[in-house]
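Lab manual, section 2.4: Encoding a predicted structure.

Procedure: take the sequence of the chain (257 residues), apply the prediction step described in section 2.3, and record the output as structure tokens. A sample record is shown.
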Amino acid sequence: MRIVTYNVNGIKARLPRLIEYLDEQKPDVVCLQELKSSDETFPEAEMRAAGYGAVWHGQKGFNGVAVLAKGADPVERRRGLPGDPDDTHSRYLEADVNGVVIASIYLPNGNPVPGPKFDYKLLWMERLCAHAAELLAEERAVVLAGDYNVIPTDADTFSVSAMAHDALMQPESRQAFRRLLYQGWTDALKTRHPVTPLWTFWDYQAGCWQRDAGFRIDHLLLSPQAADRLVDAGVDKSYRGREKASDHAPTWAVIRD
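Recorded output:
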């Protein structure tokens, strides 16, 4: 099973690129983030025409997550992260696909630091940790895939100094990510590529793509039952260089059926 996480940065604007990717790579599951689309305007017909069933949790203009499955309809398990009934952001969607629990995650950016957006980011990560612990207790194959908006280590960015004051690389953000990992989750990319730097995001500004000035913020975390089945993981970097591409590249892991 090839599972992809892909922040499309607006599904309407990137729909040709997304359909192109589905047609060329034919992944089994795709977790989308930053749809910037309401539930009513999600392109379900286009997904089905491409051979994919879908569940989605939209929000007009920003946020929004979805789970696509090739030749199947994902079975929705949870819409929204528990722990804050007043949270209106569409950032978490959980589904069952062929016996694997898949979550599409769009973690808050948190900038500027300090401020209420950073506070929200950290509280959201606390809620994610609490729910992730419950998922581990199910003792099932689970994949938490998405744009975490966290650069885990200095090796995961083109420039430590350039990102030093960004919410993505603050000690509190990194500590929260480590707490999640220490529950027993496996970072698929880091496991398969422990030394070689891999970027998943290149900003549109300052020629970042042309200079390969990127960083790693898209992650696939595997429960022990999924990690035992890990075959490979990587980044489909070339798709970032296509015309009118997202600023993220599709990032994937393969687990044995």
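Check your result against the sample. The first strand starts at residue 2 and ends at 7.
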